[in-house]
Amino acid sequence: MEESRAPLLAKRVPLADVVIGRAYLIHARNGGVGVAVLEDGQVGYRLHRVKFDRHYLFVEWDWDIGEPHGTAIPLRLLDDLPPEDDEALLAWLGDREAEHQDEVRANWEIVLGFELP
């Protein structure tokens, strides 16, 4: 799994440079934009997740945690400051995902090794 993500890992934001509370373009199973959080001593990224038409906030853990839980690779800091209110954050993350959808898609194509339809 790490081999297919090597190009993304080469440009990742080092864990030591991640700023809690700031938003990042990330490569993760369930999202492409996340806000860095620290929970139980671990860094993760709060993101907008959709499952069975339900929209909610979800945390994916930083890649450096390791398998099977570390699934998120921060790729770059976003300039915008995320809102603190959960409802506003959910909408904000959805808007940022839409804004950066081409880059998120391109990162998936790198990992998958082919162009998505």
Provide keyphrases for this structure.
5-stranded mixed β-barrel; 5 strands; alpha+beta; 3 helices; globular; 117 residues
Describe, in plain words, how this protein is organized in 3D:
The chain is of the alpha+beta class and 117 residues long. It has one domain (2-112). It is built from 3 helices and 5 strands. A hairpin with a 2-residue loop joins strand 3 and strand 4 (54-62). The longest helix has 14 residues, at 86-99. The two termini are 22 Å apart. The model has no long low-confidence stretch (mean pLDDT 92).
State the major sheet. Answer: 5 strands, mixed, barrel
Percentage of residues in helical conformation: 25-40%
Domains (count): 1
Oligomer: single chain
Number of strands: 5
How confident overall, as mean pLDDT? 92
Structural class: alpha+beta
Number of helices: 3
Cα Rg: 13 Å
Distance between the termini: 22 Å
- Taken as a percent bin, the fraction of beta residues is 35-45%
Spatial strand sequence of the major β-sheet = 1-2-3-4-5
Overall form: globular
Helix and strand run = HEEEEEHH
List segments where confidence is low: pLDDT < 50 over at least 5 consecutive residues.
none
